[in-house]
Design brief:
about 325 residues, alpha/beta, Rossmann fold, disordered C terminus, binds N-carbamoyl-L-aspartate
Length: about 325
């Protein structure tokens, strides 16, 4: 059976921790002098990115290489997509070369699911589909929180977490929200009504998810603050009067954190717009876990590739999803 990672929605707490446990065991590989293990030798991974990426693509590529897989990267600007080829034809062509895993980023929600439905032999990993899901980003955020809170012996269950900014267009927020619901955490979505509509929260159908339109009130007593970039490329209309006005009301500053969420830590999936959604002082300050997130991106992607592409012992097969 070919397995995929298309989203966090529907994963149980146990399944989430299974990814995190595997990632935890891969963190150490990247700290070695020789950062390579033979685990996926002979496996082929194709990254096909129809949207720009710095962190996600480079960390998937590094992850595959550290596992000794052969990896190739295809970007929309250099592929036949430019010549009018459809997504279906592109992924079917790539599957004909027998890759074990196709890692896909696409601007359309559901693109990775569509690919998975139409492929028979390759596993598909969703590296971001429109404003829908970005599961490996949510997993690396969780790994970062698990490491941070382990130092004070706190589990990642029972946290109060807030997402600030353009929640409406954020696949990072969506994947994280599903994860925090599965973990039983209180989730606050903070931003102007245009970017954090009530319907958005209702779609999760969970009493754990609440909307707050005032930054100060939203930040109150949070353990974790996730700052989100304004996704201008997904905004078909004006959702805020202008970025200056927006940042006056919603930029997360150290002054506000000290007053309303003094013991909080801060995440940002990147790329950051300093001074718009996060101040430079917060991004570079002691509560920022942003570099840890990037660092953990490699271990999480190693874990996902490993769990999907390893050759299963036939006796293990039955116990897999
Ligand atoms: C995010 C994405 O692409 O969804 N970035 C990332 O993967 N690190 C968030 C963003 O683009 O703002």
């Amino acid at each position: 059976m070919v397995d995929h990672l298309l989203g966090i929605e529907g994963l149980s707490k146990t399944e989430i921790h299974r990814y995190l446990d595997a990632a935890h065991s891969f963190v150490e590989v990247s700290e070695r002098d020789i950062k390579k293990v033979p685990t996926l030798r002979g496996k082929t991974i194709i990254h096909v990115f129809f949207e720009p990426s710095t962190r996600t693509l480079s960390s998937f590529d590094i992850a595959g290489k550290r596992l000794s897989a052969d990896t190739i990267n295809i970007s929309a600007s250099s592929s036949s997509v430019k010549k009018g080829e459809t997504l279906l034809d592109t992924v079917r062509t790539l599957e004909s070369m027998n890759p074990d895993v196709l890692v896909i980023r696409h601007s359309e929600s559901g693109a990775a699911h569509f690919a998975a439905r139409n492929l028979t032999r390759s596993s598909v990993v969703n590296a971001g589909d429109g404003a829908h899901e970005h599961p490996t980003q949510a997993l690396l955020d969780l790994l970062t929180l698990r490491q941070h809170f382990a130092s004070s012996k706190r589990p990642i269950e029972g946290l109060r977490i807030g997402f600030v900014g353009d929640v409406r267009h954020s696949r990072v927020a969506r994947s994280n929200i599903w994860a925090h619901i599965a973990l039983g955490n209180e989730v606050r979505l903070i931003g102007p009504p245009t970017l954090v509509p009530m319907d958005f929260a209702r779609a999760f159908n969970s009493p754990l998810v609440n909307v707050v339109h005032d930054l100060r009130e939203g930040l109150r007593d949070l353990d974790v603050v996730v700052c989100l970039r304004m996704q201008l490329e997904r905004q078909s209309e004006h959702f805020v009067p202008n970025l200056d006005e927006y940042s006056k009301e919603f930029c997360v500053s150290e002054r506000l954190l000290r007053e309303f969420a003094p013991s909080s830590v801060v995440l940002h999936p990147g790329p950051m717009n300093r001074g718009t959604e996060i101040s430079g002082e917060v991004a570079d300050g002691p509560r920022s876990l942003i570099h840890r997130q990037v660092n953990n991106g490699v271990a999480v992607r190693m874990a996902v590739l490993y769990l999907l592409a390893r050759t299963l012992d036939p006796r293990e097969e039955g116990s897999e999803r």
